[in-house]
Amino acid sequence: MLKSRLAGLVALLLVAAPAAVSAADKPTDPQIAHIAYTAGLIDIKAAQLALKISKNADVRAFAENMIADHTTVNDQALALVKKLGVTPEDNDTSKAIVKQTDEAQAKLATLTGAEFDKAYAANELAYHQMVNNALRDTLIPSASNAELKALLETGLKIFEGHQEHADMLVKMLK
User: Fold this and answer.
1) What is the fold of 2-173?
2) Radius of gyration (C-alpha) of the chain in whole angstroms
3) Angle between helices 29-53 and 113-134 (to 10 degrees)
4) Distances in whole angstroms, Cα of residue 18 to Cα of each of 62, 92, 95, 96, 135
5) Mean pLDDT by 10 residues, the chain (174 residues)
6) Nearest in space to 59 (alpha carbons), one of 152, 174, 166, 162
7) Are 51 and 63 in contact (CB under 8 A)?
8) What is the residue extent of each domain of the chain?
9) pTM across the whole model
10) What is the spatial distance between Cα 84 and Cα 47, in angstroms, rounded to a whole number?
């Protein structure tokens, strides 16, 4: 049962979310800012759920790290858009990512114990793979403002570390 639930959660993110990110032809800087900020908020929300449900020290430490890092990057993004006088623009990509991750988090919220921990770790791995691919393949190349591009590149380095950490967590929880 755990494997089928876990497979369903991962499949939801791996199949649906990348299509949403690639749906944007060439996003504008305001759209990129909104997508990146939204992605950070989503991971903060998932981490808050993990802190609410999980009793596993490693899962909780990972979740605390997600909250700290994504909050820091989002704060930097907000400061940058304020400095540049840019208003982040909601778009089909950010809306699709929110919808899909809300569905995945609703499923996660029904789990407890080791079942939750494994599903959360797998979800984080899939999510960071999707976000990192979107940053690398679409968002960074599409950004026209040098400061926004630099912030996205810094975020990518941090989030690649998150992906590696999530991968270790998944392997540890098997």
Assistant:
1) Ferritin (1.20.1260)
2) 16
3) 170
4) 24, 13, 13, 10, 11
5) 44 43 72 93 96 98 97 94 90 88 92 97 95 96 96 96 98 95
6) 166
7) yes
8) 2-173
9) 0.85
10) 30
